[in-house]
Specification:
The complex is a heterodimer of chains A (358) and B (540). Chain A has 358 residues and is α/β, with parallel strands linked by helices. Helices cover 32% and strands 26% of the residues of chain A. Chain A has eight helices and 13 strands. In chain A, the strands form four sheets. Chain A has a six-stranded mixed beta sheet with strand order 10-9-8-11-12-13, with helices on both faces. A three-stranded antiparallel beta sheet of chain A has the order 3-7-4, with no helix packed on it. Chain A has a two-stranded antiparallel sheet with strand order 1-2. In chain A, strand 12 (307-313), helix 7 and strand 13 (335-340) form a beta-alpha-beta unit. The longest helix of chain A has 24 residues, at 15-38. With 540 residues, chain B is α+β, with helices and mostly antiparallel strands. Helix content of chain B is 51%, strand content 12%. Chain B has helices at 8-23, 38-46, 57-71, 99-118, 128-146, 148-159, 173-176, 206-212, 220-237, 248-255, 260-273, 275-303, 310-320, 331-347, 353-357, 361-365, 374-384, 387-394, 397-402, 410-416, 436-448, 479-493, 523-531; strands at 2-3, 31-36, 82-84, 89-94, 177-179, 239-241, 407-409, 423-426, 430-433, 453-461, 465-471, 497-501, 504-509, 512-517. Chain B starts with a strand and ends in a 9-residue tail after the last helix. Chains A and B meet through helix 1 of A and strand 2, helix 2, helix 3, helix 5 and helix 6 of B.
Chain lengths: 358, 540
């Protein structure tokens, strides 16, 4: 009897169709990215190694069926329609960040310090006649071949001896693998004198969470140190959870927090092997020559830092920090400025902080 | 995937099963068995029991979901039996099953194969699987010709018409469409009340009566015009609708303006989905037939000790044949018990006028006037009827009660809110309903299969548009899917698509959606107008 299925291979498989479906879902999720960043709950973003649940409308081809008189989603068209239900996908953190990078056209961050710090690991890729860890499978295979060749093992003759000779032994040999390890420090600076509550606070949280996730994705979770600073007339380092909680009403000086960050950078880290990022969030309303002092400090910080972002959150008419800085650092590769008035602008702010210089 | 001869034990069991199948006089096509692993099985099912299918996201979606369900333990990857009938038939065994289960599956498969070969609907055809494999190749070529995006869009559009495949309906292509290749049998006129007419002469003479009352002649001019219109229509388009066509997908596949590549997509989808209609119409008889022969063959195998595990087999069979209430009908249980009842009844001569007319209960109970070969009579039923007639003819209230079709769990009884007046018996767990109305409810399923009945009633509606008709079953269509479905059908028909449902006319034409209130149109009126060669829907 001939096997008519020979032409289709060894297996009955739906892998190609699954691939087509997964590609389709990637496209759909990519379309959802904007919504996830602007309206989604970014606090749900896990850390590297965890999964993120993405929920989207189920897809079902529409057809004539008995109805529920209009409930459920309605789009059908020539593409897949909506059945009104939901589909959930569990996506690895890295996959989501990869999709975000693709969607927002964010380039990989330039990492410095290569060659100075390395992650060392050992992989067992090669095999030799001497060693400590015996590769049982290879050894057995060689011993079997030798025994067959020597006539010790021949089931037809009822011989089942298997001799493992010294020359048949194969050991796993460790190979030193060095991978460059990058280290990054991120400073988040917040103005606690402005009214950080309600929508303003949510906007700030959203963007900070994204920066946190994005840098973790680029450098690896354990390689990034996140430090939080607040200021009014003085500057302090605070615990991450206090970053959004502390507030004060009164005068404000932002230059001191930039100065503090600058001092910490120089005094606590090896600037030649570390990648520095600093992000400032405030309403941009500063007194007297505060902005001018910030510009002077930024001049000092610029050669050391990979990226400095200054975001005016819901600025008022008297906000002038960005205008002062942009007068000096317009279209700068390192120093990026933007303002965030509304949720919908989150993506644009992310693009201006991490995207290519326009 | 490997062939059965690679496993000597299974090969032996197959030869024994085949031996007994032939000994019992079963009419079998060539049956080829393959051994698959769990994931291959899952994949095969998503390909509608064919080994290959064109790449499509719907299969991908189902498979991704299924894999997730299997991995998370919500679904078992063990499937009882999977067979694609036809000649040759292809049956698939799961490599994780025990030898006894494999033998059971093989015996069951032989039952299905015989049913497919001899049934009234002529399900079996030559080289079905091979034909589908060839079609898949054609569709893959079509994808390259159409481009990925157009191909996916067209395929998705065609998915919307899959619920409208009815090759075995009274209103199928053959019964509803005249083609230039010659029409099929004509639809009979609707059966109506025959008017009693007074005899012209007393005493009555049929000859004199027919001479004195000649048949009413249609106006010869009108008749001539009707024939002319029909011939013109046939000559212009190659077909003419003479009755509503319920096989909408078949109609689109045959008559929609398509490129060769599009035609291949429609053809493939039609061919692989068409057998579902046969399965739906014969499921009780078919599964019952397979269970019946499974039991017969397995008994012989256990007798000759070809395989062990009779207790496990009994456990498994009782699980498969567990009685369910009539609305959740278990075709394995109902089918097997119906065939067993019929075997006994035929062998004792109980399916006869004498038995029916016998009034003495003791005589009826001890009735045993055999003489006919029950198996041959049962095969005759397979050759001549489907589930509807099977139940209508043989399912009595006594059998409904005996098979527990009227038994509902107490919790379910409360949930369904059934009236206590319908209860004839109950205990702490179960409630038995009055069996008399149950048969009628079971038969009602076969008029619509719980699906909307949609017909093509005009292929030239408003300049080339397709007019569909929803036959009212007392339930409304899901309103927010109507226009998306029409849009998809429009992509296939390439002209306006209109649906009449109750008093609403839904239209998708030229990228626009439209809804309009109209006077309700009865199905009988549609049939009548079409038979008269008139347009079924006329705006006043």
């Amino acid at each position: 009897m001939t096997d008519v299925f020979t032409s289709i291979g060894d297996r009955i498989s739906s892998e190609e169709s699954e691939g087509a479906f997964n590609e389709f879902i990637d496209e759909q999720i990519s379309d959802l990215i904007d919504g996830i960043i602007t309206d989604g709950d970014l606090n749900e973003f896990g850390e590297r190694g965890t999964n993120i649940i993405v929920e989207m409308d189920d897809i079902t081809p529409p057809y004539f069926t008995y109805g529920d008189d209009g409930q459920g989603g309605g789009e059908g068209g020539s593409g897949p329609g909506s059945g009104g239900g939901k589909m959930s996908f569990s996506l690895p953190f890295d996959k989501v960040m990869e999709l975000i990078a693709g969607r927002l056209d964010l380039p990989d961050l330039t990492k410095e310090g290569k060659g100075k710090i390395k992650e060392v690991s050992y992989e067992f890729k090669t095999f030799g006649q001497m060693g400590v860890i015996l590769d049982k499978k290879r050894t057995f295979r060689r011993a079997l071949k030798t025994s067959v060749a020597m006539g010790l093992y021949d089931p037809n003759l009822g011989k089942y001896d298997l001799q493992i000779r010294r020359r048949d032994k194969r050991f796993k040999l460790p190979e030193r693998v060095e991978k460059p390890k990058f280290r990054a420090v991120v400073y988040y600076m917040g103005d606690i004198s402005y009214s950080t509550y309600g929508e303003r606070l949510e906007l700030e949280k959203r963007i900070v969470k994204f920066i946190h996730s994005w840098l973790d994705y680029n450098y690896g979770h354990n390689n990034v140190e996140h430090r939080f600073f607040v200021h009014d007339m003085e500057a302090h380092e605070v615990m991450p959870e206090d970053f959004y909680r502390v507030s004060n009403v009164g005068g404000t000086r932002a230059a001191i927090v930039f100065d503090l960050v600058q001092q910490i950078t120089v005094n606590e880290y090896d600037t030649s092997t570390t990648n520095f990022y600093a992000f400032y969030f405030g309403d941009g309303e500063l007194f007297a020559d505060d902005a001018k002092q910030i510009v002077d400090i930024l001049e000092v910080m610029r050669p050391i830092f990979n990226r400095i972002g200054i975001v005016e959150v819901q600025p008022s008419r008297s906000s002038h920090l960005n205008s002062k800085i942009s007068a000096r650092f317009k279209n700068d590769r390192i120093i990026r400025i933007d303002e965030l008035k509304h949720n919908k602008e989150t993506i644009n702010v992310i693009k201006s902080l991490f995207g290519k210089v326009r | 995937m490997r062939m059965i001869h690679t496993d000597p034990e299974l090969k032996y069991l197959e030869s024994r099963c085949h031996h007994y199948a032939l000994e019992f006089g079963m009419i079998l096509p060539e049956v080829r068995f393959y051994i698959l692993d769990g994931m291959e099985f899952a994949s095969l099912l998503e390909k509608r029991v064919f080994p290959v299918s064109p790449v499509n996201i719907w299969e991908g979606k189902r498979m991704v979901t299924k894999k997730h369900r299997i991995k998370s333990g919500q679904e078992s990857s063990l499937y009882y039996e999977v067979v694609q009938t036809g000649n040759p038939s292809y049956a698939y065994l799961n490599n994780t099953n025990s030898a006894m289960t494999q033998a059971t599956v093989m015996a069951h498969v032989y039952g299905h194969c015989e049913f497919s070969e001899i049934n009234v609907m002529n399900d079996s055809n030559d080289d079905r699987t091979e034909f589908v494999m060839w079609l898949v190749k054609k569709v893959n070529t079509s994808r390259a010709q159409m481009g990925e995006k157009s191909f996916a869009n067209y395929w998705n559009a065609a998915e919307s018409a899959l619920s409208m495949i009815a090759p075995n309906s009274q209103f199928n292509l053959k019964g509803s469409v005249d083609t230039d290749a010659g029409g099929g049998p004509r639809m009979s006129s609707p059966v109506g009340e025959k008017k009693e007419e007074a005899n012209l002469l007393t005493p009555f003479s049929a000859t004199m009566d027919s001479l004195l009352r000649p048949p009413k002649q249609q106006d010869p001019f009108e008749q001539e015009m009707k024939t002319k219109r029909r011939q013109e229509s046939l000559s212009r388009r190659g077909y003419r609708l003479r009755a509503p066509c319920q096989d909408v997908f078949g109609f689109l596949e045959s008559f929609a303006p398509t490129t060769r590549a599009e035609k291949n997509v429609l053809k493939y989808l039609y061919v692989v989905h068409k057998p579902s209609d046969f399965v739906g119409r014969t499921q009780i008889m078919n599964e019952g037939w397979a269970m019946y022969w499974e039991k017969k063959i397995m008994t012989e195998l256990f007798k000759e000790k070809a395989c062990k595990g009779i207790i496990d087999h009994a456990k498994s069979t009782s699980g498969v044949c567990y009685p369910r209430p009539y609305y959740q009908r278990n075709p394995y249980h109902l089918g097997l018990h119906m065939w067993q009842y019929l075997e006994e009844a035929f062998s004792k001569g109980k399916i006869s006028l004498d038995y029916t007319e016998e009034t003495d209960q003791p005589t009826k109970e001890s009735w045993d006037k055999g003489g006919v070969d029950p198996i041959e009579r049962m095969r005759h039923l397979v050759r001549t009827i489907t589930d509807y007639e099977f139940l209508r003819r043989f399912l009595t209230p006594e059998l409904v009660h005996r098979f527990h079709l009227n038994r509902i769990h107490q919790r379910e009884f409360v949930r369904l809110g059934i009236s206590k007046r319908e209860v004839i018996k109950e205990d702490s767990n179960w409630v038995w309903l009055d069996p008399k109305p149950i048969k009628k409810e079971m038969l009602a399923r076969y008029t619509h299969f719980y699906r909307p009945r949609i017909y093509v009633i005009d292929a030239d509606f408003e300049d080339g548009g397709l007019l569909l008709y929803h036959r009212d079953d007392g339930r409304r269509l899901r309103s927010n899917w109507i226009q998306p479905t029409l849009k998809n059908l429009n992509m296939i028909w390439k002209a306006g698509i209109t649906l009449v449902s109750r008093n609403t006319l839904y239209q998708y034409s030229g990228g626009r959606q439209r809804e309009k209130r109209i006077r309700e149109l009865a199905f009988e009126t549609v049939v009548e107008r079409m038979q008269q060669g008139k347009k079924p829907l006329i705006f006043e």
